[in-house]
Design a protein that fits this description.
- The chain is an alpha/beta fold and 382 residues long.
- It contains 14 helices and 14 strands.
- It has an eight-stranded mixed β-sheet, with helices on both faces. Strands 10-11-14-13 form a four-stranded antiparallel β-sheet. A two-stranded parallel sheet has the order 1-12.
- The protein is globular.
- 51% of the residues are buried.
- The model has no long low-confidence stretch (mean pLDDT 96).
- It binds 4'-deoxy-4'-aminopyridoxal-5'-phosphate (PMP) and glutamine (GLN).
- Glutamine is lined by residues 11, 13, 30-31, 167.
Amino acid sequence: LLGPDGQLGITIFEEMTALAQRTGAINLGQGFPDEDGPAEIKDAAQAAIAAGANQYAPGKGILELREAVSAHQQRFYGLSPAPQTEVLVTTGATEGIAAALLAFAGPGDEVLTFEPFYDSYGAVIGLSGATHVTAPLLAPDFLPDMDALEAAFSERTRIVLLNNPHNPTGAVFPRQVLEHVVDLARRNDCLIITDEVYEHLTFGVSHIPVATLPGAGDRTVTISSAGKTFSFTGWKIGWLSGPQELVAAIRTVKQFLTYSSGTPFQAAIATALALPDEFYQGVADTLRRKRDILSEGLQAAGFDVYSPQGTYFVNVDTAPLGITDSVDLARRLPGLVGVAAIPVPVFCHPQGAERTRSLLRFAFCKKVEVLEEAASRLAGLS
Ligand code: PMP
Ligand code: GLN
């Protein structure tokens, strides 16, 4: 958590967004859309405020949203978590991740993630006092090395913290990978905490929730968020579901993190979750087009491009341009060509950082004309 100077660090997302703002660069760094979600959902939030939904919500979330989460899981995955006991509303997925880790991991435990890993995982595992163990995802597909994954388990492994679809790589894990993870978790008697915030952002492949796999349900907590699917990252409404006793333990922790989450936004997201299938398909179709536009631009700029199957991030290898240090490049890129991106090594421990040293992540959840302008600026790099 401490930077090299011993000060508490700011996240790479804040650093790069601030740099983009200072230099006037196009911000393809921090992953947030430059267009809001549906107007009717904004209206629903305003209506909830006007109707007086302005005081604390119940700690576990308003019933309407817990029911909507359950109905959404039934509609898309055939799962039916009980709204009263098996669903918890959180302040974004970030709080769900933190509360789940703090509930189940402590000194002496190991928490296993893939590497690269989303930045909050490392920080919160650190706060819990547990040890963070990683297994690498390897280019070009960013699938795990299965032997390394198996070797990463020990008798101290308490939690496998998965992220699928995966940030920052954009990988969407196939059934065999997930089955293998479940098998290893069962053999080692671990919990699975799975961060599926990009569940609807997949391109031509289906997202398979871990909780749907045989043998997984009784040990899996699934986390998601309204930020990604509905383009309301600033509302910070997330949720999680899983077996009653696990959800109850996480809720105990949540009480003392935030107690409860934004009341009128919960009401609006309950409405959003009920949007028709076409809405969800439209989100994925639009992003797929944007992925292709930015990927082509990055290719034309001379990078090796790893076009993703999910999320709104595309990774490139900068080595073909003779650049081998993506951290250094990310700091200079706004000044050089007016585009900001995130270096992949920041999502790694030192060994993984070495392996991903020349990888850079660009977000494509931006307007088409913004992506086209970014592509034309990046063409100036070679
Ligand atoms: N997990 C992953 C993998 C993410 O990419 C993000 C956000 N970008 C989060 C969690 C945090 O989600 P929220 O904004 O809902 O807290
Ligand atoms: N999850 C977003 C990303 O990966 C950023 C969220 C944040 O700034 N914490 O870019």
